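Risk register update: the risk of archive-format incompatibility is retired. Evidence:
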Amino acid sequence: MEILKINKLTKHYGKLTAVDKLELSIDKGSIYGILGPNGSGKTTTLGMILNVIRPSSGSFTWFADSDLNVNRQKIGAIIETPIFYPYLSGQKNLEIFCKIKKIGYADIDRVLNIVELYERRKDAFKTYSLGMKQRLAIAGALLGEPEVLILDEPTNGLDPQGIAEIRNLIINIAKNGITIILASHLLDEVQKVCSHVMILKKGKKLIAGRVDDILREPDIFEVKVEETEKLRELILNNSDLNLIQEHQGLFVFSYKEHSNGKDLNQFLIENGLVASHLQKQEKSLESYFLNIIEHA
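Archived output:
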């Protein structure tokens, strides 16, 4: 089931195009990561689909229904840092959220248990760690049992323990059938959490799809040989090889899928080359991201 459909969504700020004819479809149950360097349009995109920022052109539809006012009630979101009252308890702060959302207090215990803050519900917000504050913000977004949760940089500023806590929390929330859309710059965390990803650069979508499919690319190797010209010529004239980078005699190139160092070494020997250095790069969303951003 399609949860969100974005059609040529565009946002101009004067001469600056923050988001450029963005097309995207997100299905129910996805954990969808939006990646991009600073200024790529991540937060602007989230702001538009929440109707906080007015698009310059294009459109978007939630739940295949044009009535945004009704559908907005099905969406929980944290875009900017939520405002909490430091001297009030976590419980009292969530009661204020309930008043804003025009719902009763009955859901508070449920969301506090989800984010594992029930035992600290009566403690003042100012006594919470940064990770606990972020978890309380997520609890606030979960009030009212939304079908979609939108998070902008949910682990920003957290220490490794706090990052792990939010990561596990997101995974557990998604297990309950909630669709999650998150913007992040922590590529390793996105790879661990997200089922799908979109990469933005200067407002343009570079690629979108399942994380597993994106990482199912030809393997990448680093190779050094004495006869650099011969290796360069071999790479350029062979369809199984694709040169990515060459620097001071070190060649970085992709080789066919499901290959290993032994396969490549045998291939080089058959072509009269002996490698003094041969290393297979680990596949990661970070290396893929950096490569596609650099060459876009």
